[in-house]
Amino acid sequence: MNTSSVAVATGVSNATLEMLVSPVMTVAVPIIYLSVFVCSTPCNLLSLVALLNIHYKRHTPTSVLAINLSLADLLYSAFLPLQVLYHLWGNDWPWGAALCGLTTTALHCNLHCSVLTTCAIALERYCGVVHPLRTKHWRTARRAAIACVLIWAFVLITQTPLLRRDLTLRVVELDITTCFDVLPRALFSHQSVSYLYFLVILLMFYVLPLAVLVSCYVAVARGLHRSLPTAAESSGDKREVLSRRRAQTTVALATLCFVVCYLPTITLHGLHLIYHSQGKSLYKYYKLVLSINSLNCCFDPFVYYFASREFRRALRRALGRCVPLGEGEEVGNSELVSMTGELRASIGHS
């Protein structure tokens, strides 16, 4: 990389220099990113194949949203190797400003798209379980596809400041070129603008999605809990009861994954903004929880597995009998159960 064309950072504080050489940044973060890449890439590839197989047979809004989520997770993982090498090499970016901007934007876009798509799936599940008849007319695959396009468009718009500027900066004291770890002064017109931008990002892609997810999944869990006695009394179908209990487990798992992955990021993001305004920094810890945040890419395929009988069968067709079926499921059973875990029509009419 030609370092003569890279802007040089001036007035770099000792705290920033210590942060750039910290083991948290150069050891812990790349190890987590590498683990996420190794785990999530094959899992999401298999998930995408299974989801496309399901969508080919039956077009549902959940299958469209799940495919979009799987694509976002897969694209996020695809850019992780560059981040792993960057941090392992002491936060030194050798591939130029263009690739730095592309990688940073891609990572943020796919991460934020994953969050919003997860919210869309939660809303679809909420409508399917709590208000199945009232919302049936607009819960279509076509409208889910439109929602995915709008999500990507919105996320790209929020990344406009990053697309317009050179995000690399030369730190002479350490003889390294950073990529978005030391912000160029020209990125924002004023420091207050940068605080406002990152505060909006925090609210739009972390705080509000977490509130939506928890609210939806609590409502879904209550709806499923109320439906269990009804299903058992009305039909005596053990598989019906097991289906709802699996759906309850899925709801709890999805909520737990999101809280574990995103709550630390929300907390550290907010604290970092407060500390930074006081001349202090929690950036290395923010980067650590941001890497932990990416573990969500590894959890999503397992949520699909526990949530959908169709998904398990699609994996079984692709991988053979090494993929176990759930309790009460038969290999020859052709019944299709939606990933939403929504109530059957008989219960919805009761």
Short description:
The chain crosses the membrane at residues 27-52, 64-89, 95-123, 144-163, 195-220, 251-273, 285-307. Helices cover 71% and strands 2% of the residues.
Summarize the structure in words.
Pfam families: 7tm_1. This is G-protein coupled receptors family 1 profile domain-containing protein. It is a multi-pass membrane protein. Residues 43-304 form the G-protein coupled receptors family 1 profile domain. The chain has a two-stranded antiparallel sheet with strand order 1-2. 71% of the residues lie in helices and 2% in strands. The longest helix has 45 residues, at 191-235. It is mainly α. The chain has one domain: Rhopdopsin 7-helix transmembrane proteins, CATH 1.20.1070.10. The radius of gyration is 23 Å and the shape is elongated. The termini are far apart. Helix 2 packs across helix 12 (309-319), helix 3 (61-78) runs parallel beside helix 6 (141-158) and helix 8 runs antiparallel to helix 9 (238-277).
The radius of gyration computed from the alpha-carbon positions, rounded to a whole number of angstroms, is 23 Å
Which homologous superfamily in CATH is the superfamily? Answer: Rhodopsin 7-helix transmembrane proteins
CATH architecture: Up-down Bundle
Summing up helix and strand content along with how strands pair, one would put the structural category as mainly alpha
Instruction: Give the overall average pLDDT.
Output: 82
Strand elements, count: 2
Assign a percent range to the helix content: over 70%
Tell me the domain tally.
Answer: 1
Membrane topology: Multi-pass membrane protein
Main location: membrane
Organism: Coregonus suidteri
GO cellular component, one term: plasma membrane
